[in-house]
Design a protein that fits this description.
alpha+beta, Beta-Lactamase, Aryl hydrocarbon receptor, activator
């Protein structure tokens, strides 16, 4: 319900918590920002202001002039100091209230790389850190900034309306659906169990959009982000719904673990306009080797040579339904693009 997100930053400048709506404003996933240093998100010029407000007395220690602090690259607070509780003002003191402006890095397309946020909150004791001093003794809870971060410029009515329609889905690396948020269930009509039972996520994609989506899938596996992709998804009512999507890889221990896709429904006129602009040539051919990602055999069983017949995707779609009987016989992988098309009900077209 907030026009913003909740942020908890330790006195050392580490992000301890952020609410999931941080993705709506900055484009970073909730899981991806903690426990990283807030220094990575704050614009360089705003680092000192952020450090100053994280310090209980608004007076963080300075590095000696001309000498960069050894910890400067690690966190906003270049030399974290552990204070005893009796050295600090009482927690309900108005002296610990904070309100300041910082420019944060932003990955969304509607900004110039940075978004000015007003952080309003207070310093409170953050429990459960279990930190120890150099001699091994347990340190008492230290102050952390608990703040609500809101954009300095209020959003337009169009942005609010658009934000209210956005839904997110979670997928395995091969695009198999794992989860869907509440708005996605309303837009598409499926429960999470129904999404998972259907197998590959390409079973929900229109046949004429499959190669286009697969190309961006390959790009995302190489670069970490798919870029804006406009395509049609099959709803539970057997209707096609145009969406504008952007997929990102989420890493764990420096390895890609799953995919998060942010999707915004479009009206049919918008989708049709994108379709007209889309290049008509196939995004990749069997010669590039990228088709191996989807385990497509070549030549395809029961299909004419595409380099001789020059058939379009729609022709492949029709042919695949007429050869439905050879689906198991020829051993076509159901998770491949061809398998996904053949498992769709031809009545939806």
């Amino acid at each position: 319900a907030l026009n913003g997100f909740v942020l908890v930053v330790t006195s050392e400048g580490l992000i301890f918590y952020s609410s999931h709506t941080i993705q709506d404003y900055l484009g970073f996933h909730q899981v991806g920002v903690k426990p990283h240093s807030a220094r990575d998100l704050v614009e360089h010029q705003g680092n000192w202001e952020a450090r100053r407000n994280l310090h209980w007395a608004l007076n963080p220690p300075h590095a000696p002039e001309g000498e960069p602090s050894p910890e400067e690259g690690k966190s906003l607070s270049s030399s974290a100091v552990a204070y005893k509780l009796d050295q600090l003002p009482p927690e309900n003191s108005s002296f610990l209230e904070r309100s300041f402006v910082c420019r944060f890095r932003c990955l969304l397309d509607n900004c110039s790389g940075f978004l000015a946020l007003n952080l309003q909150g207070r310093l409170k004791f953050l429990h459960g850190q279990n930190k120890r001093s150099e001699d091994g003794s347990a340190l008492p809870p230290q102050l952390a900034l608990f703040a609500i971060s809101t954009p300095l410029q209020p959003p337009s009515i169009l942005q609010i309306r658009t934000k209210n329609m956005i839904f997110r889905t979670k997928h395995k690396l091969d695009f198999t659906p794992l989860a869907c948020d509440a708005k996605g269930k309303i837009v598409l009509g499926y429960t999470e169990a129904e999404l998972r039972m259907c197998g590959t996520g390409y079973q929900f994609v229109h046949a004429a959009d499959m190669l286009y989506c697969a190309e961006n899938h390959v790009r995302m596996m190489k670069t970490g982000e798919s870029g804006l992709t406009v395509f049609r998804l099959l709803t539970k009512e057997n209707r096609w719904k145009w969406v504008q999507a952007n997929a990102r890889l989420v890493y764990k221990n420096s390895k890609p673990e799953y995919i998060i896709v942010t999707q915004r429904p479009l009206v049919d006129e918008e989708g049709g306009e994108h379709l007209r602009k889309r290049s008509m040539h196939l995004p990749f051919t069997f010669a590039t080797g990228e088709a191996l990602l989807y385990q497509s055999a070549y030549p395809l069983p029961g299909f004419p040579d595409p380099f001789q017949s020059k058939g379009k995707t729609s022709k492949s779609k029709k042919t695949s339904h007429s050869h439905g009987g050879c689906f198991q016989k020829d051993g076509i992988d159901p998770s491949s693009l061809l398998g996904a098309v053949m498992r769709q009900n031809k009545a939806v077209y």
